[in-house]
Write a structure and sequence with these properties.
This protein has helices at about 20-30, 85-100, 135-140, 145-160, 170-180, 190-200, 220-235, 285-295, 310-320, 340, 355-365, and strands at about 10-15, 40-45, 50-55, 70-75, 105-110, 160-165, 185-190, 215, 240-245, 255, 270-280, 300-310, 325-330, 350, 375-380. By secondary structure, it is α/β, with parallel strands linked by helices. Helix content is about 25%, strand content about 20%. The longest helix has 16 residues, at about 85-100. The chain has two domains: about 5-190, Rossmann fold (3-Layer(aba) Sandwich), CATH 3.40.50; about 190-350 and about 370-405, Rossmann fold, CATH 3.40.50.2020. It is globular and about 75 Å long.
Length: about 400
């Protein structure tokens, strides 16, 4: 289907009942009907999942065609109660239900794309990497399936026409999904969210030219993203630091300054450093990177990450004093839970991205509509020292809803 023929009659559903992320996205897209009134997510006594798009039980007209001409957006995020494997299967069945009831287009919105870590297989022809795969890399995947490709193929077979995700880190996954969906794969990079927040919050010192601000790429994989962030930020005197990491074990890495780094280690003394990455799991690398930077005695170190896996190990490690503040998106919505944040709630800020996603979906699907003023909503615990500072007004922090910050 061409971009010009993109449907304008859109419905948003989730793959878990009462999922707040899906509900908030539907609201941001100005959906008037509750998701619960659009789809029933049933589980039979034998544990089989069966979604059903709801119609009038007494209406026998157009059976199997109630979704004709519509675009169905399936919102899929991680859930503590339902495994990713189960959620993936739910996506397949919901997509097939939509198509077999007449939907013109099915879009999967999965901010943290499932199976992205399984982005290649045990042979050189299974996955497309930006480096020469050696025997050690091939052996890592020996005996495994190339799950990312299988997931893409299964989604397409089920009826998904388009996939939208956020800040996917894998070149191989991007290539595979781009090929399977024939260009209808959209990897949204949140440059504008981070830039807006850096410019309109007090997370770093406010300067017109970027004097006293340094952006940091912790490894090779983050360099292109941080380089683009640096260019788009438009602050001529902001610095750019590149680090190298060499892994000697599953959680053992050594950190050094990259030889082509614009700013030396001595150059970050008494400045604010914002270190960016796409995801964090155990926290080992980011903590060691921040400890390395801390040697130079910067004024402040902020860790900004798109996908925050709030594992117990990660929470414990990132409580380290080398990190002053953690800035993340809610691509994994459990990060909003104060118990999940644990001690990190004292230095964690979550930017809720449903409004930003709604904007992007409207652009992708050529939908009309008024643009929301805000790119994001801020969620911050009252335990965070910045919570009580007198900055909470719409002129200084766009998109903030004060009533939602102290949940």
């Amino acid at each position: 289907m061409s971009e010009k023929s993109a449907p304008r009659d859109v419905i948003v559903v989730g793959n878990v009942s009462d999922e707040p992320f899906a509900i908030d996205l539907a609201f941001a897209m100005r959906q008037q009907v509750d998701i619960a009134d659009l789809i029933s997510l049933k589980t039979f006594a034998n544990s089989e999942f069966c979604p059903r798009f709801i119609s009038d039980e007494l209406d026998y007209t157009r059976i199997g065609l109630k979704l004709e001409g519509k675009c169905v957006i399936i919102v899929s995020t991680s859930n503590r109660l339902v495994s990713r494997n189960d959620l993936a299967m739910r996506n397949l069945l919901i997509a097939r239900a939509a198509k077999e009831n007449g939907a013109l287009e099915v879009v999967l919105l999965e901010p943290d794309l499932f199976y992205s870590a399984q982005d290649r297989g045990p042979r050189a022809d299974l996955g497309v990497t930006q480096f020469q795969r050696d025997e050690a890399d091939l052996k890592k995947f020996d005996g495994q399936p190339f799950s990312a490709r299988l997931y893409a193929q299964m989604l397409a077979l089920a009826g998904v026409d388009r996939v939208v995700t956020v800040h996917n880190h894998s070149h191989s996954v991007q290539r595979i999904f781009g090929e399977v969906f024939e260009g209808r794969f959209h990897n949204l990079i949140p440059y504008d969210i981070y830039i807006d927040y850096l410019r309109n919050s007090n997370i770093v010192r406010d300067t017109d030219d970027g004097q006293g601000l340094v952006l940091c790429a912790p490894d090779k994989g983050a360099r292109d993203f941080v380089r683009e962030m640096h260019a788009r930020l438009g602050l001529p005197k902001a610095g750019f630091v590149m680090l190298d990491k060499e892994r000697s074990g599953e959680r053992e890495v050594s950190i050094t300054m990259h030889e082509e780094s614009e700013v030396t280690l001595d150059g970050i003394a008494e400045v604010d450093v914002v270190l960016f990455d796409d995801m964090v799991r155990t926290g080992s690398t980011v903590v060691q990177s921040c400890q390395y930077l801390r040697q130079a005695k910067p004024a402040r170190i902020v860790f900004a990450v798109s996908h925050f896996y709030a594992s117990e190990e990660g929470r414990e490690k990132m409580a380290n004093s080398a990190i002053d503040e953690i800035l993340t998106l809610n691509t994994l919505p459990t990060v909003l839970n104060r118990d999940e944040q644990g001690r990190l709630r004292r230095k964690m800020v979550v930017l809720k991205i449903e409004h930003w996603l709604a904007r992007n979906l409207c652009d992708i699907l050529a939908l009309p509509g008024k643009q929301d003023v805000s790119l994001y909503q801020i969620d911050m615990s009252s335990k965070n020292p910045r919570f009580l500072r007198k900055i909470w007004n719409s002129d200084q922090l766009r998109g903030l809803h004060p009533e939602r910050t102290g949940r």
